[in-house]
Amino acid sequence: MMPHMSLLLQVGLIRPLHFVLAVNVFTACLGLHWYRLAALARPLYRYLQLLPLLQCITYYTTKPRPNPQNVDLLNAISQCTATDNSITTCYPTNETVVVQDSAVQRQDTQSIYLVWNPRVPLLTLADELEVSLYRDDSSSEQPVYSWTLNAANPTRGDAGVFTVPVDDVLTRLNNSWTGTNIITPMYFTVASSTSGGGKNAIRQATFQLVQTGPIPLPNVPAVAHSSALASESQMAPNPVKAIATGPNLPSPSSSTDGTVGHTRASPGTIAGVVVGVAAALVIVVLATWLLARRNSSQARSRGSKVFLRLKRDEETGSAGSCGDEEVAVQGTQ
Q1: Rounded to whole angstroms, what are the CA distances from 76 to 84, 90, 204, 313?
Q2: Cis omega before residue 92 (within 30°)?
Q3: Rounded to whole angstroms, how far apart are CA atoms 233 and 205?
């Protein structure tokens, strides 16, 4: 096996090597000397040796960064799974900031999460939970959103998790977008529906909701618009997206708003294409240069042969002409 062949196989360079082999056969048919081409292609071979290092650099520079909000969320789930009944909710906290369109900040979360402790006595025997969302900068006691979760409180010690889309909350807030960020302090309340609901609601930590742009319009076909509005007016709002335990939550690098992520080409594929194109250009240039050099040397060789032949003909032709003149002079006499 050639030197470093195993390394080249590991980094996926077998296709560029097949291309080089094909060019080798092509140059052999043209009568070019392979050892000259190999000597000129030695820098390309050195580049192929450094390719694994370049792939590592590309991978670590383009690796997605973990979403800070998702990291805090996973920590909160672990905390609520292991804590006692003195803590009602573990997320959001007073330091939590939820940003609309947070993909600009290299974040993936487009939902507001609520993580509660299922061992709280008020929630232990609950068949249904009542969750409400309030804005903290208003004197109104009416919630921005209120839900009754049609699910039993987790009984295996797992943390309870509830989500609501950010844009749904911003729609209810109905803030006038003026081109600058709008920060709204908000908080959740949690209560058991069997214990009087809102009368026994427990206020949780205040977090910040940041609106960074206008609220996108719903993607509803024009034909179905009227029927959608009619069904929406008849049904109570229920933007609950998931009531799940920790293991069912998406990882920090995955999307939590249900949207499909963009497919990205792997660094190895991009590097392979770049190497293949570079190898093709280098080999074509070298083959063209060697072919031109070969034709030039052949032309010089043919020219030298013609020059020697002409010189020899001149020498023999001049001697013969002198003899012919002597014969011609004798004949006339």
Answers
A1: 13, 5, 14, 102
A2: yes
A3: 32
Instruction: Say how far apart CA 96 and CA 23 lie, in whole Å.
Output: 60
**What is the DSSP secondary-structure string of 66-125?**
PPHHHHHHHHHHHHHHH--TT-SEEES-TT-EEETTGGGGT----EEEEEE-TT-HHHHT
Pair of tokens at residue 198? 């809102």
Task: Tell me how many degrees the CA angle 224-230-232 measures, rounded to the nearest 5.
Answer: 100
**How many CB atoms sit inside 10 A of residue 303's CB?**
10
- What b/e sequence results for 305-328 when a residue is b if at least 16 CB atoms lie within 10 Å of its CB, and e otherwise? eeeeeeeeeeeeeeeeeeeeeeee
> What are the distances in angstroms from CA 289 to CA 63, 136, 283, 327?
41, 76, 10, 57
Ordered strands of the 202-211 beta sheet: 97-99, 202-211, 182-192, 129-135, 145-149
Nearest Cα residue to 98 out of 219, 206, 254: 206
Q: What is the pLDDT of residues 79-91, one digit of tens each?
A: 888 888 888 899 9
Terminal CA-to-CA distance of the chain, rounded, Å? 87
Q: Provide the whole-model pTM.
A: 0.46
Q: Which structural domain range is residue 206 located in?
A: 68-248
Report yes or no on 39 lying in a domain.
yes
- Name the domain boundary from 248, 282, 312: 248
Which one-letter DSSP state was computed for residue 318?
H
pLDDT digits (tens, 9 = 90+) for 203-228: 899 999 998 888 764 444 434 333 44
What letter does residue 139 receive in the DSSP assignment?
A: S
Residue 261 lies in a domain: no
Question: Exposed (0-12), middle (13-18) or buried (19+): which is 248, by Cβ within 10 Å?
Answer: exposed
